Amino acid sequence: MGKQQISPVYVLGVGLTKFLKPRGKVDYTELGFEAGIKALLDAQINYDDVNQGIACYCYGDSTCGQRVFYQFGMTEIPIYNVNNNCSTGSTGLHIARQMVGYGAADCVMVVGFEKMSPGSLQSFFPDRAAPIGTSIKMMQETRGITNAPSSAQLFGNAGREYIEKYGAKTEDFAEIARINHTHSAKNPYSQFQDIYTLKQILSSSTVHDPLTKLQCCPTSDGGASAIIVSEAFLTARPHLRSQAIQIAGQCLATDAFSLFNRSSISLVGFDMTRYAAQTALAEAGVSAMDVNVCELHDCFSANEMITLDALGLSEPGKAHELVRNGDITYGGRCVINPSGGLISKGHPLGATGIAQCAELVWQLRGWADNRLVKGAKVALQHNLGLGGAVVCTVYKRADGRSNMDAATPAVVGYNPAVEARGFTQEQVDQVRSRRARSEWALGETQKQVEARF
Question: What DSSP assignment string belongs to 221-244?
Answer without folding.
Answer: BEEEEEEEEEHHHHHT-GGGGGG-
